[in-house]
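Take the subject:
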Amino acid sequence: MSLLRRFWAWVWNLGASRDRVLDPAPAAKSYLRVIALAHIPELTMPKIGTVASGALQTDNLSTRETWRNYVGTQVAQPFEICRAESLDDLKNTVKRAAAMNCPVRAVGSGHSWSDAALTDGIVVETHQLDSVLELYPVTLKSPGDASSLIHVEAGITIQSLNAILDARGQALLNMGGFDGQTLAGVISTSTHGSGIGLGSFPSFVAALVVLAADGSVLQIEPTNGISDPGHFAEVYGTQRVLRQDDQLFNATIVAVGSAGIIYAAILRVTQKYWLSELRVLMPWSEIREKLDSGIVDEFRHVEVLINPYKIKGDNLCLLTTREMVPEPTGPVIPRPFRYVFGNFLSGLPGSSEVLTFLFNQFPRSTPDFLQSALQDLEDRNPYEDISYRIFNVGYANSLRAISAEFGIDFDLQIQAVEAILCSAEEFAAEGGYNSSPIALRWVAPSPGMVSMQPTPTCMIEMPMLADVFGSDAMLWRYENLLTRRFGARPHWGQQNFVSCSGDLLRKLYLQFDEWVSVVKTLDPGGVFSSRFTDRIGLTNHAPERVRRQ
């Protein structure tokens, strides 16, 4: 069956599923209405101004600028939006903001579902800070290590960084399933891939270059860092100050934009490598046994997608495993149909709106749709390709979605998953359905006082279409369940509701008070304060806004 026929056959079959009956005439009208609303601006509320994925758009209605994340679920109307093209631009902005008693937040691709980037002060857009910087081997304790390091501005996207590394015959040690984020974003939120022997992005950072509130540029490294202090001072003079201190490094490496602006980073990289990926369907009962027997130690990468709803007495899962393989001797043969159904849906104009309509109109068909989606993803024939092509999941990242993710201690992972599955069935009885499978990934301990991965960790992610009924409420209830029963640590870049009330954050992040203390020494005046820092208890209030002169 052709892809188009398959899609519309599935839509038609919704009418026969469960207890819903589809009348084709009103359904057709509804589709036309959904697509029209999505593609005829005159039928929607006018947008005064937006910044989406780093690009400012302003219409003729007003010069007022509004910043939004890529799905429009986090919105701020800052005093000003500026675009930094150099370190001097960053310095001048921070200096001017401090003089005006106005807060500053740096933003990248807007691929965060949390309020971390929101401010009513100055937004600094960093995408033009995307150059590879010179790495001086003479500044290193071991100059020969320069070949396995890259010095790069932190506004660069992971996609662009992959292209640069590939041209050098190198690669990132690991990455997540999306390459549109900026380097600063993935570092400061402890974003991760999967692999119990591989840490999150902060694990690959040898040095972090941070613009502090007082205008100084700090190169922050662990106590036994890569740089030779004497030679470093000879090269950089007063332009960049070397700070080698474990406490400072672990406080700033995951600070969610609250300790300063990350200008650049020196990353550890590896030689270009290839992966072989296998995707196999099996029930949760079998996956659970494999987790108990240590499957996550048997492969370089292990991921699991779970249908939250039982069909025929069990939850269907997709187990993905990956191993490194030698470079192919012949050309890599692409598999254009590996993600074809999902990429087809997400690539259609208005696909998010159509899928949202379907999930809302036929909620009881959700379990069957998720079951079909997992079945479409199975591929028992090993697929080999360059590492970053295997990692990137494609157009699904463009859907209008929200997501929450939580770090669970290794010994609690099965209990936590089964509690989620039980809650999903309870929510379904109330009319609320997860509109995506639940994802499990495993991450090695990673640096950062408020990292989600202080120990070997199972990361549990729950993405959902943003406008499907009950999505936001379900994520809030999942968070309450996981934080209180299992001590789960929320991903700072994904949707979360935790605050310092009731000392919850101190219970989840055992070094939270130490982190607050160190960050306040870097920013005593609250230059980088925001709604987010107020919510988590780092600051009591943001500086007062000032009127435009």
Observations:
- Residues 212 and 260 are 5 Å apart (CA to CA).
- The two ends are 64 Å apart (CA to CA).
- Confidence is low (pLDDT under 50) at residues 1-63.
- The chain has three domains: 3-43, 137-271, 274-500.
